[in-house]
Amino acid sequence: MALLARCVSLAALLGRYGVLMLLLSCAAPAAAQESAAALQIKAAFVHKFATYVQGEGTAFDDPSVPLVFGIAGSEQVYDFLAELVATQNAGMRSADVRRVDVPADLAGVHVLVVGSDAAEEADALLQQGVGRSMLTITDLPGPQPANSMIHFFVADDRVRFDIALEPATAAGLRLSSRLLQVARLVGD
Amino acid sequence: MRVLGSIRNKLLFIVLMTTFSALTIASAIFMAYDISSYRSLRVNDANTQLSLLAYSSIPALEFEDKKVAAENLDLMALRPSVRAAAIYDARGRLFAEYRRAGAQHDFPELPGGDSIEQDLHSLVATSRILRDGEILGTAYLAADFPLLERILRYVGVLVLVALAAMLMSALVALKLQSLITKPLLSIVGTARDVVATREYTRRAEKLSEDETGTLVDAFNDMLAEIESRRQAMENANRQLEAEIAKHAQARATIMQLNEELENKVQERTQQLQSTNHELESFCYSVSHDLRGPLRSISGFTQALREELPAELPGDANRYLERVMAAARRMSQLIDDLLNLSRVSRGELVRNHVDLTALAREVVHDLQARDPDYRPDVSVWQGMRAEADPKLVRIVFENLLGNAWKFSAKKDKPRIVVGVMKDGAREVYFVRDNGAGFDMKYAGKLFGAFQRLHGMNEFPGTGIGLATVQRIINRHGGRIWFDSAPDSGASFYFTLSPAAAAATPLQESA
After folding, report:
1. Which pLDDT score is estimated for B354?
2. Which of B71, B134, B136, B138 to substitute to test the interface with A, most A CBs within 10 Å?
3. In angstroms, rounded to a whole number, what is the distance separating the alpha carbons of residues B103 and B96?
4. Which of B29, B80, B228, B278 gives a 20 to 30 Å CA spacing to A182?
């Protein structure tokens, strides 16, 4: 029975991450494909980051409120995340994914992801987040912008991320030390 | 148990076996408990370790950071008992691994779910890594689990403890067992001495007041009893010996006396026989020598009677008659006396005798001598015997002569000669219905010259029955009679030695 359950759960995992895993494992040299695989991983990371964040009086500490992901400048991340949320386990917290184009869209968003397509609006969007207990994640080339709490980068063909504690603390959010363990840069 | 020999060894054996049993049971229980608790401790420890490992590996797995996972695993170096550890990802691929320095370990291709496997040397535990119900991977831990070593070490320690305890027990038992063995050995020693020396006056020493003490008392009582019985027996033996000696002496005396008596009897018998012989010789010679003068008296009286005239003066004729009658009587006396002595002296010749014929001949002779007297005589037929014919004839002559003589004065005189059976023996009888005699004179009947009737009444010499008795005696037989005055007389006789315990008929009235 345990083996069967395990097979089923493995199958479910494959179903969810199937494409991603396969792409990653194949490690195809094509840039477009690589980018897609990386984006898929990033979407999965974003989905998990929320579980390592705490903040008194914020939505992160209130499981009854659906967690709202706001995606700006990355259609693939949006798609993958939407799919993840749609297929996530019944035991997991309910979530919602929406596109963010202008700062006005940030209302009700708990996790903001700024993709490379929104590099120009990034600063404005991040600026909007200041003073709000909103987790800000950036997937932009170059160093981590100001007010970005988590910043993706690729090293040795692997998706890694930096964490800046200062904006998070300012926003009243605490990032779990266990998350910091797997991050590259902690604080400035 | 026989191998152990003495009680001392048996006691020691009992103590050692008791100690050993108690120790073995206690050790076994203690060891089982300890091994069980050790096992659960190690299993719990492994589980805790595994849980910690799983928990700390969640971020590394979620964010696919093998380096961090490896760093987490490296912390296991703080636990030297952990031989190897690993993290597998959700698809069962090895994600990160750890090996103790210098240790070889092959990680399984696909780890199990939540499980713990253990053998005598090692323990392998796996645990799935879960987060919000999602399986992120599997944690794997292989640790030293020296169960066998621990058991062996335990057994070693327990053996040492058991040896020490048994040694101690043996020392204590050797010290204390004298409480039991000393009184016992005291009895045993006394018993051996008593058996060896047969000295029942010895007593065992009472060293304790327990059952052994009671045994000592009983043993001593028994010794006392044996001693007293032995003495009683010795006394009885002594008395018996003395009595036996006395008896033997008495017997010897009696035998000596017997011998003397026999000698005396033999001597007397010889004297008697020679005297008898002399007497018979004397009687014979006297009788024989008397014949000559008597014949002279008879012959010359006869001659004188013939020479003298028929008519003599006075009573001369009558005197002559009396002289001649006296001479005849004397001749008869001498004949009888010679007969008597001949009967005693002659040799006994046994022959087959027809007694019937013999008796009839005698009757015939008596009838011829006295033709006027005719008694009714009946002689039974078929009487036979093994006897001396001449002597038996004398017997019948005398008995029939007497019957003839004493029945003569009866109106109807009757004489019977017959035989009857007394067992195997034949008893002959001669019976008449004549004068008879008083039985008070029976003692005189067979003596020589004894007469019961006056010479005038019945003539006779008084020698006949003496002769008859002598003849019967020489045949080994017996003679007896039965009579009463005026009722006749019956004479019974046998001619052979009596069979044992044969009772004669009517020996006396």
Report:
1. 93
2. B134
3. 16
4. B80
* Cβ–Cβ contact A52 with B under 8 A: yes
Rounded to whole angstroms, the Cα distance separating B27 from B9 reads: 26
Residues of A in contact with B60 (CB under 8 A): 181-182
Distance (Å) from the C-alpha of residue B36 to the closest C-alpha of chain A?
28
Alpha helices in chain A (DSSP H): 2-26, 31-49, 75-87, 122-129, 165-170, 177-181
Asked whether the ipTM of the predicted complex exceeds the cut of 0.90, the reply is no
Supply the pLDDT for residue B448. Answer: 65
B68:A181 CB<8 A: yes
Tell me the backbone φ, ψ of residue B115, rounded to 5 degrees.
Answer: -155, 160
- Cβ–Cβ below 8 Å for A45 and B134: no
**Mean pLDDT estimate for chain A:** 78
Dihedral of the CA atoms A70, A73, A77, A82 (nearest 10)?
40
- pTM of the predicted model as reported, rounded to 2 decimal places: 0.49
Which residue from B63, B68, B90 is facing A10, i.e. has the nearest CB?
Answer: B90
Which residue positions in chain B have pLDDT lower than 70?
Answer: 1-4, 448-461, 498-509
**Is residue B68 less than 8 Å (CB to CB) from chain A?**
yes
CB atoms within 10 A of CB B4: 13
Q: Do B407 and B432 meet the contact criterion of CB atoms below 8 Å apart?
A: yes
**Chain B interface test: which of A48, A49, A137 (most B C-beta within 10 Å):** A48
Residues above pLDDT 70, as percent of chain B = 94
Q: Which of B63, B65, B71, B74 to mutate: most A Cβ within 10 Å?
A: B63
pLDDT for the residue A17 = 47
CA distance A104 to chain B (A): 31
Taking alpha carbons only, the member of A45, A80, A102 closest to residue B65 is: A45
Q: Token digits for B266?
A: 């033999």
The three-state secondary structure class of A176 is coil
String of DSSP letters for B265-308: HHHHHHHHHHHHHHHHHHHHHHHHHHHHHHHHHHHHHHHHHHHS
Q: Does A8 contact B at CB distance below 8 Å? A: no
CA distance B395 to B466: 10
Task: In whole angstroms, give the CA distance from residue B344 to residue B388.
Answer: 13
Query: CA–CA separation, B159 vs B23, rounded Å?
Result: 10
Contact (CB<8Å) B65/A182: yes
pLDDT at B485: 85
Give the residue from B68, B64, B69, B62 showing the smallest Cα distance to B85.
B69
Size of interface A-B (CB pairs under 8 A): 53
> Which DSSP letter does residue A57 get?
T
Write down the pLDDT at residue A28.
38
Q: Would an 8 Å CB–CB cutoff place A177 in contact with chain B?
A: no
Residue A15's pLDDT is what? 45
- Neighboring chain A residues of B56 at a CB cutoff of 8 Å: 178
Contacts of B58 in chain A (CB under 8 A): 178
Cβ separation of B135 and A14 shorter than 8 Å? no
Using alpha carbons, list the distances in angstroms from residue A139 to A47, A150, A161, B35. 14, 9, 9, 58
**Most confident residue range from A12-26, A145-159, B225-239, B424-438:** B225-239
Nearest CA in chain B to A21: B91
